[in-house]
Design goal:
Layout lengths: L17 H24 L7 H10 L1 H15 L7 H18 L4 H25 L4 H20 L4 E2 L3 H9 L1 E2 L2 E2 H19 L1 H11 L1 H6 L4 H27 L1 E2 L8 H11 L10 H20 L5 H29 L1
Antiparallel strand pairs: 1-4, 2-3
Length: 333
């Protein structure tokens, strides 16, 4: 019986699986339909380039956070501490730049260094003490949240160096603040590493089967340490971006990015390269979710709907991602 999802084999014997091709772009298609729907409901306010410019810039930290999440996820580990790392990084910038008067470039370097330390601490307890990653990163989240509240006296710190603000949202290209392009550059670099370097292949092999990877000569523990440290650095970079977007350091709101970033990481694994955590899928998913939240907010939907939307998206994304990964494994088998 002929599979109707596949075109008949041409002379060369190559068949095109249209169902798989559609799966790769389905989320993008739904995103455009979502834009069209909100545009039809609010043509003057929603279909406005200024609205999209603000959306692209304000969710750039969430895009970087989603990229941070997919690195350890690809290696088979969870990092729940990325939201707290983002908050810690932005508050380090606020405390050291505004209160201590240190130069902004030095403060940014220290904030990124804090991301390295967080990654190393997580890696030590996860890999060498052998505590599950969910437990460790949940614990470091609580630890960093307390440290941030102590550092900032639980208050927002305004007046961050204007140089950072201008570098993040002051300059624009095609009307969109630079913050968005930093996230795009990070996605390009990650996509290259994932798809075209031995390191990316090792990361994928470790996530698919650690014992098999170890038997094939891959330094599994070293790859996992590198993934967790990279996650910490990217989350800290998201904190730098967040401080630039706000022009201040908020000890609380950064944690709100964690749920949508995780939802985007899993939802992104259902598109572009279905069955794999991939940078472009994560970025598309972040802005898909951002479009939904922005549109609902502009329609006057109550704020609690945002939590329902993000939570439902995460459950749906994980379900679809697991089904897609399972089907891919079955096809390989």
């Amino acid at each position: 019986m002929t599979d109707i999802t596949q075109a008949p084999a041409p002379a060369g014997g190559v068949r095109v699986n249209y169902a798989r091709l559609f799966e790769r772009v389905a989320l993008i298609a739904v995103w455009f339909l979502l834009i069209a729907g909100f545009g039809a409901a609010m043509p003057n306010s929603f279909l406005n380039w200024g609205n999209f410019a603000i959306l692209f810039a304000s969710y750039a930290p969430a895009a970087l956070l989603a990229l941070a999440i997919i690195v350890p996820l690809t290696a088979g580990d969870y990092d729940l501490s990325v939201g707290a790392t983002l908050t810690l990084s932005s508050c380090i910038i606020g405390v050291l730049n505004v209160w201590a008067g240190l130069p902004i470039l030095l403060v940014i370097a220290l904030a990124l260094g804090a991301g390295v330390i967080v990654g190393l601490v997580n890696a030590f307890f996860i890999i060498y003490v052998r505590i599950p990653s969910l437990v460790v990163t949940l614990g470091t989240t609580s630890l960093m949240t307390g440290i941030v509240q102590w550092m900032t006296n639980s208050s927002t710190i305004g007046g961050i160096d204007n140089g950072l603000v201008m570098a993040v949202v002051g300059g624009r290209f095609l009307g969109v603040p630079y913050a968005f392009y930093y996230a795009i550059v990070a996605a390009i670099l990650m996509s290259y590493v994932f798809d075209f370097t031995p390191l990316g292949r090792r990361l994928l092999f470790v996530g698919r089967g650690r014992e098999v990877a170890r038997l094939n000569g891959i330094a599994v523990d070293r790859v996992r340490v590198g993934a967790l440290v990279t996650s910490g650095v990217l989350a800290a970079a998201a904190g730098v971006l967040y401080a630039g977007v706000l022009g201040s350091a908020d000890p609380y709101s950064g944690l709100n990015f964690l749920l949508p970033a995780f939802a985007a990481a899993f939802l992104g694994a259902t598109t572009i390269l279905p069955g794999r955590f991939n940078p472009w899928g994560a970025v598309v998913a972040v802005y898909f979710l951002a479009t939904g939240i922005t549109g609902l907010t502009m329609l006057g939907i109550p704020l609690w709907v945002t939590n329902v939307f993000n939570g439902g998206a995460l459950i749906l994304a994980v379900t679809i991602s697991q089904l897609t990964r399972g089907r891919e494994a079955s096809d390989i088998g």
